[in-house]
Design brief:
Layout (H helix, E strand, L loop, with lengths): L1 H7 L7 H10 L1 E5 L4 E3 L7 E7 L2 E6 L5 E7 L4 E2 L2 H6 L6 E4 L3 E7 H10 L3 H20 L1 H4 L2 H11 L9 H8 L3 H11 L1
Antiparallel strand pairs: 1-8, 2-7, 3-6, 3-8, 4-5, 4-7
Amino acid sequence: MNAFINYVLQFGNLNHQQTELITSKSFVLELRKDQYFSEAGKISRQVGFVLEGVVRVCYYNNKGEEITKYFIDENNLVVDIESFDNEICSSAYVQAITDCTLLCFNKRDWQELLNTIIGWDAMVHRMVAKALIQKVERRSPLVTEDATERYLKFLEIYPNIVNRVPLAYIASYLGITQSSLSRIRKNIQ
């Protein structure tokens, strides 16, 4: 819980009562490797904060290929914000790729925090904005660089993830085959 409160305090101030309220509305969710936090075709019903582990956001393209959009590791929010806020079906999956521990809030309790804590909506807006900027910054270099440069950038962006996730997911994220990724890794060592 302290990790989440410290994260939130980057975006605004909370008093002791507000912190207590947030704590009372949260619950811990344990996900085993390969379990889903949320799924395409379903409405996202919770906001999570990764305490331990790594999740990935992925989807299936029109050829039926699984594509990894990005990874989320410790001390980051996990939510399909469009699905959660607008109560529409998600177009992506959020899957644990290691055993994970998340601090979660269901929709009703999250809404209660928004209605009760003055300034919570502004803090949430700043949290979401930071996550979106981070997502764009992580994806943008992948458009213009060659495969080796994309992998080197991946190592820079996700230094704590490379040895924790299957190479197939990294290759999918980079838009290359697993055999190409293996060659690249061999050539840069």
